[in-house]
Design brief:
Elements: E1 4-10, E2 13-18, E3 25-27, E4 29-34, H1 45-52, E5 57-60, H2 61-66, H3 68-83, E6 89-92, H4 95-101, H5 108-117, E7 122-124, H6 136-156, E8 160-165, H7 171-182, E9 187-190, H8 194-198, H9 202-212, E10 221-225, H10 233-238, E11 243-246, H11 248-254, E12 257-260, E13 263-266, H12 278-282, H13 293-321, H14 324-332, H15 336-346, E14 363-364, H16 374-388, E15 394-395, E16 421-425, E17 428-431, E18 443-444, H17 458-466, H18 480-503, E19 510-513, E20 520-525, E21 528-533, E22 539-541, H19 543-552, E23 560-562, H20 564-571, E24 576-577, E25 581-584, E26 593-597, E27 603-609, E28 623-630
Parallel strand pairs: 4-5, 4-11, 5-6, 7-8, 8-9, 9-10, 10-11, 14-18, 15-16, 23-26
Antiparallel strand pairs: 1-2, 2-3, 12-13, 16-17, 19-20, 20-21, 21-22, 23-25, 24-28, 26-27, 27-28
Helix pairs in contact: 5-6, 6-7, 7-9, 9-15, 11-13, 14-15
Bound molecules: guanine (GUN) and zinc ion.
Guanine is lined by residues 92-93, 95-96, 124, 127, 129, 164, 191-192, 194, 225-226.
């Protein structure tokens, strides 16, 4: 039914492609609200596409229908003819007008028939707009009526159908609405939130989306009605919103306000050339006073579109880069209401953890909220479990520990009793052997730049340790081999858990380290690399590693089972598509590298997961796993996912 494909992701945030009869919409996307009457548009859809790359728009089918001349043109030439635009056009049903004016003359059936007749690419059900203040009973009634209309609409609609998700401020109704809408709609449109956006009630806004989020089918595009201020885009995307629509660019222009990603600026106060975009180079903001009120409004509206389009592009890039949390934290400084919303989300890590990636390229501390990100919460929980399986560890002196220091840290005390060590980090106490692991490994925080701590010499660490009479430091730097074993064991246990790690013959494994930094770069056996360790400090199996693993712990290793129809393609290195996933072990996580097997457990390939196990198979389109090594690959290609950094 549906045509939404996931291309890339950062947690719940998605980079996707929604296919429509007039071409795909690359998401997250802003669909500017355009008036159906071209004479009343501040910018034409064509111009928006050509100038800002905004490829899709939304317009009101209801306003079109209500105006006899517009209705006549739309019936004759279609909505694309009326708007003179051949890109994707979504139409809204009139629910918002019903809310604003108390009633509309159109019936739900008429609204749908009209949207169908004018060739809307995405038609919207005439829902019951539920106010955030609506009492439970009223919200529940509105919700059931919306669903009834949605079912009737589905019966008569072949094209894409947007089903609004209502429920007001009642989380259980939002959840029910999301789940029911997922069985009907192609686009799931969270509605009833305009008052929250207008009044900066962003905590309630994110809670409404968060309540719906786990119940929205992963293979549908998610729309957020009315979110048009660019400072909200990153936060919306973080919650998995794919489509944003808004008339904010015009509404703020009417009030003489500039929309920027970091807030709203009244034009009257602008005395400096604070923007040098193409629009401003032609006509600086400081000169807009010379224009007539109407021309000024058009100019401002276009400027607002530009900053909005730019911010949406930044959001998409951040999803590609895995830096969306950083962008959200930066944007949250635009307004305390946004920061409050972010904090309220941080209080519910369970929302994010199921799709939280196992790794990202970087972790930069941006704000006071950085160390509360779900990746940190998840990491700390796993560290607690890991530590619970060990004897009490000794706390290492508070020094910045670099990998080359390891060999100087004794593994036994003077009496020959084994020592476990933990280091104090901004993410809490972490066993020394896990210090390279994401997120603590790539962590770049403020404290590193505050003092000469970075230059702490090995000799100083030695001096500190030697000052402790209970330690067996007399072996000098000869603890390397012991640490190698500890690290191999830790990396494999971190990846596969204690049971599987316990079955692996660790004595047959060796680590390869970067010559420059002494970081573990791979784990090998008899010269054959079995795991590659990236900057995320995690062990990613090569094809050979997966063979070794499956042979050592048959039946136990978390893996993805591939449908026989796709087995040969996967074995030849082609991506595994979601619809060919027979089963995915729930212990797998997004971004992990896992073995792919056929139903008889024959190894086909290893690959990196784009989807969480509970999403695989539920996405009808798109890639589930990108292959990083396969049966028929030349041996050195097996060294992906990270190129083997032999000396650095
Ligand atoms: N526009 C803004 N909010 C809404 C909503 O809740 N439903 C519909 N159909 N359109 C909207
Ligand atoms: Zn400008």
């Amino acid at each position: 039914m549906t045509d939404f494909e996931l291309v890339e992701r950062d947690g719940l945030a998605r980079l996707g492609r929604l296919a429509t009869p007039h071409g795909p919409i690359e998401t997250p996307a802003l669909l500017p609200v355009v008036h159906p009457d071209p004479a009343r548009q501040a910018a034409s859809p064509r111009w928006m596409r050509e100038t800002f790359g905004l490829g899709a728009v939304i317009t009101s089918a209801y306003i079109t229908w209500r105006s006899p001349p517009l209705q006549a043109i739309a019936r004759e030439r279609g909505i694309h003819g009326l708007l003179d635009f051949d890109g994707p056009i979504m139409t809204d049903s009139g629910a918002f007008q019903q809310h604003a004016y108390g009633s509309v003359e159109i019936t739900p059936q008429e609204s749908l028939d009209f949207q169908e007749a004018i060739g809307s690419d995405i038609a919207t059900v005439l829902d019951v707009f539920t106010e955030p203040e609506a009492p439970r009973e009223q919200a529940a009634e509105g919700l059931e009526l919306t669903l009834e209309r949605a079912r009737a609409a589905r019966a008569g609609r072949k094209g894409l159908l947007a089903v609004p998700v209502q429920g007001g401020a009642h989380p259980e109704l939002r959840a029910r609405s999301a789940e029911a809408a997922s069985r009907i709609g192609d686009v799931l449109a969270v509605g009833g939130v305009v008052p929250l956006l207008e009044q900066y009630r962003f905590v309630e806004l994110v809670q409404a989306v968060a309540a719906a989020r786990p119940h929205l089918a992963p293979d549908r595009a998610v729309h957020l009605f009315g979110a048009g201020h660019p400072m909200t885009f990153a936060l919306g995307a973080l919650l998995g919103v794919d489509l944003f629509d808004s008339s904010a660019y015009i509404k703020f222009a009417r009030r003489g306000a500039l929309l920027l990603a970091d807030g709203t600026v009244p034009l009257t106060g602008v005395r400096e050339r604070i923007c040098e975009c193409a629009l401003c180079r032609e006509r600086p903001l400081t000169d807009l006073g010379e224009l007539s009120a109407g021309d000024r409004e058009v100019h401002l509206a276009r400027h607002n579109l530009l900053t909005s389009a730019e911010e949406m592009a930044r959001v998409r890039q951040a999803i590609r880069d895995g830096t969306l949390w950083e962008l959200v934290e930066r944007r949250a400084t635009a307004h305390p209401a946004l920061r409050a919303a972010l904090r309220s989300l941080l209080a519910t890590p369970e929302l994010f953890l199921p799709t939280e990636p196992d790794r990202r390229r970087a972790f930069r501390e941006v704000s006071a909220e950085s160390l509360l990100r779900p990746s940190v919460i998840g990491f700390r929980r796993r560290v607690e479990e890991y530590r619970a399986r060990r004897t009490t560890a000794r706390l290492l002196p508070a020094v910045p520990l670099r990998p080359e220091y390891l060999s100087w840290i004794p593994r036994e005390d003077r009496e020959g009793r084994p020592l476990e060590w933990v280091a104090r980090t901004p993410m809490g106490e972490v066993p020394v052997e896990l210090l390279e692991t994401y997120p603590v490994g790539p962590f770049l925080g403020v404290t590193e730049f505050e003092s000469p701590r970075r230059a702490f010499p090995v000799a100083a660490l030695r001096a500190l340790l030697e000052a402790d009479p209970s330690l067996g430091t007399d072996r000098g730097s000869r603890w390397q081999a012991d640490w190698d074993r500890v690290q191999i064991r830790a990396l494999l246990e971190w990846r596969y858990g204690p049971e599987i790690a316990g079955r692996l013959e660790i004595s047959r494994l060796k680590v390869g380290r970067s010559r420059r930094t002494q970081r573990v770069r791979w784990i090998e056996s008899e010269g054959r690399p079995l795991w590659v360790v990236g900057n995320d400090g995690q062990a990613h199996p090569t094809y050979g590693g997966a063979e070794w693993l499956l042979a050592s712990a048959p039946g136990l290793v978390p893996r993805v089972t591939v449908h026989p129809d796709a087995a040969e393609f996967v074995a030849a290195g082609r991506s595994l598509f979601s619809k060919f996933v027979v089963r995915a072990d729930p212990a797998l996580r997004v971004e992990m590298t896992a073995p792919l097997v056929d139903p008889s457990d024959r190894l086909l390939a290893v690959g990196r997961l784009l989807l969480a196990p509970n999403e695989m198979g539920r996405m009808s389109r798109g890639v589930a796993v990108r292959i990083t090594g396969h049966a028929r690959s030349p041996p050195d290609l097996e060294l992906e996912p990270e190129p083997l950094p032999l000396d650095g």
